[in-house]
Automatic annotation (TrEMBL):
Intracellular or extracellular location(s): Early endosome
Species for this entry: Coilia grayii
WD repeat start and end residues: 20-51, 195-228, 238-279, 362-395
Domain of life: Eukaryota
SMART domains in alphabetical order: FYVE, WD40
Keyword Zinc appears in the UniProt entry: yes
Annotated FYVE-type domain residues: 281-352
Pfam family, one: FYVE
Protein name per UniProt: FYVE-type domain-containing protein
Transmembrane segments: none
SUPFAM superfamilies attached to this UniProt entry: FYVE/PHD zinc finger (SSF57903), WD40 repeat-like (SSF50978)
Length: 410
């Protein structure tokens, strides 16, 4: 993979435009202000700051506000200048930012949760603030009256949230690796389904209301695309990270997915190409190629006087195979395997060289990324995390129509 990164031309990389420093602790969110050279940051150091780009080219705070508890999440609505901050103590505070970004006035405090608010979204259409928390609940509150409208209790700490403003569906990711899909109403709700597919806590969710696609990134290093609009239960697995995936963003116009992981990797996926579902792993008591028994198959081991083998799975066909029958490795981007994975011998020999052409590009953010925001219309991206630095990137060379139509082969 390293060789591939270095062989890419300089121009197709994210270009670092600016760095914002000065936070005393982790920056939990850095949101781009639409149509302004501005960024809003919220941090573990209990600050909310609005940064504007000055004539010097550097970003300086025009608002610096300290609250009583670490700021864990944010939802900013640009047209109304309303901003909602989720806090570590479970409260959500609403402020109104002045037109010139020099003042911020407190509007309301919502006693939404008993624990850290890790995801929240303001919906102007419903006048709701929907939020999820480490107190294992999802709540939605009326922003006109401040009243709690409803609450749903989950089995695990919630970690992230997406909301469809039109249909009022909420998607809640949690630490057990599940995503709960709910339909919210005023004071009632129904649980639609639970999406199970990850083997680690959900780090990020992104809902695309147009194509009705849900993307989830998780601590198991993988991303799943849940094709809700397709109504056929299609899921695509995307494996192109070596660390926890903590931010995902789908660009509907160019059909690209941008994902970031804790190790600073930024991966840009071409979703405008044929992709196949990875197979379910099959169960067997013996290798489905050489028929030797696996170690728990005591009867066959005794009958044939053979030693039991460990079970592995071919990522391409899903068959249960022994180590000897699956000694080779290959990438297979068509199924989302951008890195080398285990293949049985027959699958390995069936893969042609062109099948190994990457369907994603790989970039280095060079800092811990726990949050990412993008403004696709300007090609801007912000990343931030525990290293207290906010980076502002020019992504125009990476995300764009030329890239979306297909990546050049290696
Ligand atoms: Zn075998
Ligand atoms: Zn196979």
């Amino acid at each position: 993979m390293a060789a591939e990164i270095h062989s890419r031309p300089q121009s197709s990389r994210p270009v670092l435009l600016n760095k914002i420093e000065g936070h005393q602790d982790a920056v939990n969110a850095a949101v781009l202000i639409p149509k302004e050279d501005g960024v809003i940051t919220v941090g573990e150091d209990r600050t909310i700051r609005v940064w504007l780009k000055r004539d010097s080219g550097q970003y300086w705070p025009s608002i610096y506000h300290t609250v009583s508890s670490p700021c864990s999440s944010v939802s900013y609505h640009h047209d109304s200048r309303r901003i909602f901050i989720g806090q570590d103590n479970g409260a959500i505070v609403e402020f109104l930012i002045s037109e010139d970004f020099n003042k911020m006035n407190h509007v309301k405090t919502y006693p939404a949760h008993q624990g850290r608010v890790c995801g929240l979204l303001f919906s102007l259409e419903s006048e709701w603030v929907v939020s999820c928390s480490h107190d294992k609940s999802l709540s939605w509150m009326c922003t006109q009256t401040g009243a709690m409208l409803g609450r749903h209790t989950l089995n695990a700490w919630a970690s992230c949230l997406q909301f469809d403003h039109e249909t009022r569906h909420a998607f809640v990711g949690d630490y057990s690796g599940q995503i709960t899909l709910l339909k919210l109403d005023r004071q009632t709700y129904s649980t639609i389904t639970t999406l199970k597919g990850h083997e680690g806590s959900i780090g990020a969710l992104w809902w695309d209301p147009v194509q009705r696609l849900l993307f989830s990134g998780a601590a198991d290093h993988s991303i799943i695309m849940w094709d809700i609009g397709g109504r056929k239960g299609r899921t695509l697995l995307l494996q192109g990270h070596h660390d926890k995936v903590q931010a995902v963003r789908y660009l509907q116009l160019t059909r690209q997915l941008v994902s970031c992981s804790a190790d600073g990797a930024i991966t840009v996926w071409n979703m405008d190409t044929r992709r196949e579902e990875a197979p379910q792993w099959l169960d067997s008591d013996s290798c489905q190629r050489c028929e030797q028994p696996f170690f728990w198959n005591l009867k066959q081991m005794w009958d044939t006087k053979t030693l039991g083998l460990r079970q592995h799975h071919c990522r391409k066909c899903g068959q249960a195979v022994c180590g000897k029958c699956s000694s080779k490795r290959s990438s297979f981007p068509l199924m989302g395997f951008e890195f080398q994975v285990r293949m049985c011998d027959s699958c390995h020999s069936s893969i042609k060289d062109e099948d190994r052409t990457a369907l994603a590009t790989f970039h280095e953010g060079k800092h811990n990324i726990s949050f990412m925001d993008m403004d696709p219309s300007r090609g801007l991206m912000t990343t931030c995390g525990s290293d207290r630095v906010v980076k502002i990137w020019d992504m125009t060379q990476v995300v764009g129509c030329s890239i979306a139509t297909g990546f050049s082969p290696r």
